[in-house]
Here is the input.
Amino acid sequence: MDQTIPLLILALPLCMFLVLGLAGHKMSHKMAGILGTLGMGTALVLAYTTAFTYFFGGNFVDEAGNRLQHIVFNYDWLAFTENLIIRLGFLLDPISAMMLVVITTISFMVHLYSLGYMHGEKGFQRYYAFLSLFSFSMLGLVVATNIFQMYIFWELVGASSFLLIGFYYTKPSAVSASKKAFIVTRFADLGFLIGILILSFYSNTFDFVTMTQAPGNVLASTGGAVFMGGSVLTWALVLIFMGGMGKSAMMPLHIWLPDAMEGPTPVSALIHAATMVVAGVFLVARMFPVYLVEEVALEIVTWVGALTALYAAIVACTQVDIKRVLAFSTISQIAFMVVSLGVARPELHEGVGYMASMFHLFTHAMFKALLFLGAGALIHAVHSNDFTSMGGLRKHMPITHITFLIGCLAIAGIYPFAGFFSKDEILVAAYSNSMMWGIWMTAVAGLTAFYMFRLYYRIFWWNNPDYSKHHHTPHDAPWTMTLPLIILAAVSCVAGFIPFGELVTWNREAYEIHLNYPIAITSVVVALCAIGLATIMYRKENSLPDKVADKVKGLWTAAYHRFYFDELYLFITHKIIFNLVSRPIAWFDRQIIDGTMDMFAEVTNKASEAIKGLQSGRVQSYVLVYLLGALLVGVVTVICMVL
Amino acid sequence: MEISMMYYLIPSLIMFCCGVYGFITRKNMIAILISLELMLNAVDINFVVFNRFLFPGQLDGMFFTLFAIAIAAAETALAIAIIINIFRSNKTIDVDDATKMKF
Here is the structure.
């Protein structure tokens, strides 16, 4: 494949970032926004071309019909030794081509949407510059040819996420949220880096293709080295997954994501729902053949995912901030993908879990971006994040209402919306691995349907609050905001019918999806029951939700406080780490290190103070001293000679 | 009576000690300068005497003395210039008052 188009896909957002970042303040808001959107639009067209050529061009399959991993270019960037070379390149394979489509689509929608949503905000150009930076970093991450390039872009997306969460930098809560996101993900990335180093130390390569084509070699090269009861490879893979846990907000490193909702809503849609947070899933998918070698690591992945899915779903049932609900729903849905990867085995339905995970990633990106952008439109209209100040909005905002409903149906997994197909595949994979995971994930899927429709009914039905005290009654947003909603809603309706199995599978061999009717029917029935329950509880204003909350008071309060994870972190950091580690170290620094230096300075000072009288400025006393000295030397010399 | 080296060296020594004494005790800068010249001349005498008595066939010591005298003249001119400048700024040439260079 020609290098120009792939290079342009990366270069365009980067150029936009530089242009808008350096010259943005000289442009008008409109100009900057349109420029950024056009740049992203071009990248979108190019990415679609690339993905289309890859999937349907026919040049990228081998004789057996398997798709190839194609390296478009791979430049040596830093060459330390013969083996230790860090390259920057562009790897085209099913998952990276799919991610190109997802990222550019969502990013373009968000660019377009922000024209309306961010209208008149201070720092509009800066916002667009950061969006471009993020798009560039994310694209660079998914096309990385080696794990080190991925790490570089991994940090870049972290940095742009930090910048965008803290976009309203005059708001203390936004500032602390951005810091929290950065610190938590940095902490996770420490694990990632150590994992990379361990893995590369044994496998002698950073390269994904080399690593994944003969994953057995990596295991063999460790020579069965064992560390604290686990093989070294397991440790490396778990540490790498820890990086993914941080980015993908898996328990217990999820605490930054709900707070990240302090950023502008389109940013939440782009970064904290559709693209960046699935980087962890993407990472595991990228390394999947290596993970298959160490099934223990996959077991851990499954457990983390399953616990997170359940936890986040329960918490989402109790939150009142619509963005928080969506944030926890995101955590739960990403956990679905993680579980799906964790339960995937080549021998079970030809590794359907991998395909299901990528499929869900794709469909989730679409409908979750839709839900977030819809939430943005609601917040734009009502000027509040809490659904307690909403209600009955279906009459005021029909377009938002319909699109939001489609998003909810999609995430709940109702036929024929996108979520149904991908979630069904995930459940198939879970059931085929073990009954327990199947039932577990079905239950979480039911919870998903419940909390999404709780949200939906509370926003659009429930009661009819008096909107007359606002300066205008809520109404649908301008076309720049509704158009992305409509497009994404349309995509959410049809995305399920994409023959995903033929495009993306773990060994790049075509796989035919066929619905497993018992599982599909069960999950739809569970979802419908949950929706029915939500309808009874939240369709009209009544006291039933409060009664239910009273019944399970302990659980409700705990879930409302997100099971006290933040408090736990604060306890650990403030009470334990600060008191037992930081304070002693700070004391050591101040007293011992600084004290030594101060002592040197003090001694020098005292000494010079004591002898400064010698420099009296009296020439004659100098001469006298000199004379006496000379005489003394003379006398000593004479004595020595005599002796 | 033969005039030996000692007849020259002892007056030279006395001259030198006078110079040192004057240098240390006098407060007037001009007097200090004169004492300095005294010391220099004592040294010159030594040069000449040693040359005359120890290496009669050579002229090195004589030339040294000539150079020293020339340099002493230049040095005196310099010292006088400095003293004049100090007088202009301090209105005195008492050496104890010129203490601006101390700590």
Remarks:
- The radius of gyration of chain A is 30 Å.
- The mean pLDDT of chain A is 86.
- The interface with chain B takes residues 612-613, 615-620, 623-624, 627 of chain A (CB under 8 Å).
- Residues 549 and 556 of chain A are 6 Å apart (CA to CA).
